[in-house]
Every structure is written in structure tokens, then in C-alpha cells.
Amino acid sequence: MTYPAAVTRLLELGHELGAPTRKFDLAHMRTLAAAMGNPQRRFASVLIAGTNGKGSTAATLTAMLQAAGYRTGLYTSPHLVRINERIRLDGETISDAEFSEIFDRVQPAASTLVARGELPWPPSFFEMLTAMAFEYFASAGVQIAALDHQRFLGDTIGAIAQEKAGIIRPGGVVVTLPQHPEANDVIGHTILERGASAVSAAPYVPPVSPGAERDGATVSGTRSRYRLRVLEEEITVESPLAGRHQLRNIALAIAAAVELKQFGFAVTPKQIERGIRETKWPGRLQLVPAHDGWPDVLLDVAHNPAGAWALRSALSERFPERRLIFVFGAMRDNAIGEMAEILVPLAERVIVTRAGGGNPRVAEPDEIVAAGARLEVPWETATDVAEALEKTQDAADALVVVTGSIYVVGEAMEIVSRGS
User: Where among 232, 255, 277 does a domain terminate?
Assistant: First the structure.
């Protein structure tokens, strides 16, 4: 099957885990994996869960493992521009040819299971991609993979934490940081119930007080540079991931790398240092400088209130005097009103657009405007991201902030990065 045909077939399976009325059952995923010979058992895995920062943490840890010479897989979701981004081997996305080849291995197995009644319906888009990632990593000889945990969560902090804690395995090691008390309680009890051990990443979070700046550390919306003691050796952390919120993600990745030694994956302090420096994770406070008629464009996938606060903090610190024009799009199930209240007060004007092509979850521009109507800022609408960006080309001295849905950011990245 050709790559375009494989992508079309995947998209026909529906968005991510499928229709809301379909019950997602992990047993179905196990059935599909078993039919393929359980490829996920042929390499070690690190599962990463959380509301924000999963991808950044996974990308940073993967870079460390690569720096240590391990053949490393990375599986994340969703993607910015192309589906291939979700499956990476040693930092490189799976090629179109490999993608279609792996699809041709998984799809017949899934069809046979449905025909035999061993699966009640075809796997969802996300389940198929997960199976494909397992098969690809196993066939490519991956030694260890970082898997960004995707799941529909609950409506309360406790319920969300309970879903996140679902990745905790009996006897496993859980690397974590202090968070909301209710979440801490759920995660702590799950660790005890499953006989797992907890490791705090707090020792790897740097001081962020003004005094830290005087000691030679730089922790800002522009970059992060500071000293840490890791495995009895001092290293310099220099991360390309901007924003103070990344400090926790980097700390989690460091702590995970340190703990992996007991599982046969030794990573030295210098390899940790190099991995952090070489981390690539686009679309997170990524500045595309002005070129070819485009103004400066900042891309950031702030898709929920926590992400919006992180973006607001970075904007206030990094661009305190700049005129800001927002290009914003979101999914209907995002907290659109709350995100608008956080971000819109910073804006000179807001251009609202659709995101995600034919995704049924996409919020229409009029819905977004209605959600933020009480905020006193000029609102404009655009039929797509390209039109929204065109509306900013008359503001050469402004900073255009593209945010909200990851799909809006991905489409904008593809447009404004050409020739940059």
C-alpha cells in the first residue's frame, strides 16, 4: 500500500481513540499486540504521563539515551505537521516507505481479528498507530523507547490523576514531582498498592530565585542555563526548550535517566548534559524570525489553561514591550473561555481560525469568539490558518503568537517556516 493510502485508511478509523460512544478497552490493544507476536516485549520502555510536558520530557530523555549510544525509539501524540512525527527512531521520523510497510503488517492482523470476532470493531486511529510503533521499534532493533501516554482523562484532579496512575506497574519505578495535593494522594496510594517505588526529581529542579541569576544561572523565557550535580558530577544544563515550565520536564528526564542504570541502561553525566543540549521538540515557544514579508512568529501549543499560563508568563518575561497579535484555534472540548481569559488581555487583537481539518472536535471561529466575547479586544475570524496569518502581514513590528490547538501550530509552522 502507498503512504497516502495508508494515511487515508488510518484517518477513516476516526480521531485518536475513536468515537466517544465507543468504550476503549486495553484488552483490545493486548489482543492486537498478541496477534503480532507482542513486539512491545522486545524492547524496554519508559512510559510518560501528565497533563502538560509529556512530549518535552520524552524528547529530552530520548536525546540523553541517544547520546549514550542506545538505539532509541520515541512515540508521541499528537503530531504537528505529519503523522510520521509520532514515530521516531534515533531522532529521525519514520519514512513514508517504512510507514506504509508497517501499516501493511498491522492492518491485515487487525482485519483478521475482527473477522474472527476476537475484536468487536476495528482498532481506532490511535490503537493502530500504537501497534505500528511497537512493530517498527521491534523490527528496527530498538533497545529502549520513550512512550508518551495518551488517554482520555476525567473531569476532576483526582479522576485525572487516577487515569495517569494507570501506567504504574507492579514493582516498577515511578519518577515524579510534587503537584496538586489531590493528585499526590492518588499517585502515592497507587504506588503503595502496586508495590512500586517512588523517586523524586526535585533534586534536579534548579533554584529560580533572583539570586540564581547572580550565580551564573539563566532561567527565563528565552533559554535555560544552570549548573546541577548529577551522579556525583557537576554538569551544565543548556536547554533549547524555552520557558520556566520546562525546568520540571528536564528534571524528570534527568531523574529517569539516572534510574535507568538499575535496568541496564547506564547514562553518564556528560551524556545527560549533551542530550539536554541536543533535544529537539518544535512548537514549544519556538520563534520563527521575520522573513519574506512575515513578522516575527512565536509558535506554542498551549492547549489548556496550564499551558496558557506558561505561555503568558514567557511572553511577559521575554517580550514585555512587544505588540502582540494572537492567531488562535482550539478543539471544542478545550477550556476555551478560560484560556481566552488568560491570554487575550495581552493581545492587541485576536484572529480566530479553525484547526485540524475535518476533525469533528474542532471549534468553529464563532464559537471561540462567543466564549471570549466579554473580553475587550478586537476579534477577527479567518476560514483557515493561512488566511489568519495573511491578516498579520500588515504588522511588521508586532509579534504574532500562534497558539491553542497543536494542529493550528502545526499548520502555521509549515507556512511560516518556508524559506526561514
Answer: 277
**Residue 157 counted as domain residue:** no
Q: Residue 361: which CATH number? A: 3.90.190.20
Residues 273 and 295 in one domain: no
The residue with cell 502545526 is 410
| Collapsed DSSP state (helix, strand, coil) of residue 403 | strand
Position 143 in a domain: yes
Query: Which H or E element spans position 257?
Result: helix 246-259
pTM: 0.90
- Give the residue from 221, 172, 203, 204 showing the smallest Cα distance to 272: 204
Same domain, 269 and 291: no
What pLDDT digit, counting tens, does each position of 117-171 carry?
A: 999 999 999 999 999 999 999 999 999 999 986 544 445 555 566 666 667 788 8
Cell of 341: 481569559
Q: Rounded distance, CA 277 to CA 271, Å?
A: 10
- Asked if residues 167 and 150 have their Cβ atoms less than 8 Å apart, the reply is no
Please say whether the beta carbons of 55 and 281 come within 8 A. yes
Contact assessment for residue 407 and residue 357, using Cβ atoms and an 8 Å cutoff: yes
Contact 145, 40 (CB under 8 A): no
